[in-house]
Amino acid sequence: MSFVIDINQDEFVEEVIEKSKTTPVIVDFWAPWCGPCKQLTPVLESVVNQKNGKVILAKINVDENQGIASQLNIQSIPTVYAFINGKPFDAFQGAQPESKINEIVNKLIDATPGNEIPKLIEEANQFFKDQKFEESIKIYEKLIGLDSSNIKIICGFLRCLIQLKRFDDAKEMFNSIEEKLLDDGELKKIKKLLDNSANEMDVSFEELLKNLNEKPKDINLRYKLAESYLSSNETEKGFNELLKIFEQDPNWNESAAKKKLLEFFDLLGFSDPNVIEARKKLSSMMFK
């Protein structure tokens, strides 16, 4: 079965309305003379084909099918309509980057009645928040098999691997991700975390701790210890050292401790259990 079809207005009810009751259908209204259409249509075809039948793309030439274009109030092209269960679900106009198209298509698939993926993602995320990373990653492994191009699933799986300190597995998976997906903001944050984990510190935890015990008020030493913990994914310990610095001197080195905390809050995401706890502690210090 082809996932990309050319249809006319007489086939619209059968190929779009009826088919969308079982499989989401994206309708691409285009014309041969339209420059942006020539940019958008290949991207739509590529993304849809990647979904292996989870969504169908129907292309309609508006020059040859002005009746249906008028009924749907198509005023400029390219215009794209998405249908679920026989009804319009979403629409957009103009060329879009592939990352945006992929996001739109994933949203469409997630909204399909009977789709188990959103429920499984929610379940995996709850395990993650509860710091049950082994349980979470088992669900993400199943989800990867269901939809390997879904950014939410990829990011969730990678974050579990990082929490479990399976850095080699995380880097191997990251390197296998299609280049066109790498513009995603969440994946860029995960890349920074993986790069950070690759940085080797000049001294060991033991040496830093020994020096800090001898000089407990040395903020530079404590900050270096915090960075060492964070680079080894000892996130809770790293956050605790940064919070101690903030409590001792919030303005030290142009608020370096707070800036580092906020940087890692953003990289790890607000659903990360260590971020949730550290944010509470930081807020209580800031507003006491």
How would you characterize this protein structure?
- The protein is α/β, with parallel strands linked by helices.
- It has three domains: 4-110, Glutaredoxin (3-Layer(aba) Sandwich), CATH 3.40.30; 117-196, Tetratricopeptide repeat domain (Serine Threonine Protein Phosphatase 5, Tetratricopeptide repeat); 205-286, Serine Threonine Protein Phosphatase 5, Tetratricopeptide repeat.
- The chain has 14 helices and five strands.
- A hairpin with a 2-residue loop joins strand 4 and strand 5 (87-93).
- Helix 5 runs parallel beside helix 7 and helix 13 (252-268) runs antiparallel to helix 14.
- It is elongated and about 85 Å long.
Secondary-structure topology with pairs:
Blueprint (H helix, E strand, L loop, with lengths): L3 E3 L5 H7 L6 E6 L4 H16 L5 E6 L4 H6 L7 E6 L2 E7 L4 H13 L6 H13 L3 H14 L4 H13 L3 H10 L8 H14 L6 H10 L4 H13 L3 H14 L3 H17 L4 H14 L2
Parallel strand pairs: 1-3, 2-3
Antiparallel strand pairs: 2-4, 4-5
Helix pairs in contact: 2-4, 5-6, 5-7, 6-7, 7-8, 7-9, 10-11, 11-12, 12-13, 12-14, 13-14
Shape: elongated
Give the strand order, joined by hyphens, for the main sheet: 1-3-2-4-5
Percent helix range: 55-70%
Report the top-level CATH class of the largest domain. Alpha Beta
CATH topology of the largest domain: Glutaredoxin
Could you name the CATH homologous superfamily of the largest domain?
Glutaredoxin
Write down the overall mean pLDDT: 90
How are helices and strands ordered from N to C?
A: EHEHEHEEHHHHHHHHHHH
Q: Count up the domains.
A: 3
CATH 2nd-level architecture of the largest domain:
3-Layer(aba) Sandwich
What distance separates the N and C termini? 64 Å
Residue stretches low in confidence (pLDDT < 50, at least 5 long) are none
Describe the main β-sheet briefly.
Answer: 5 strands, mixed
Radius of gyration: 25 Å
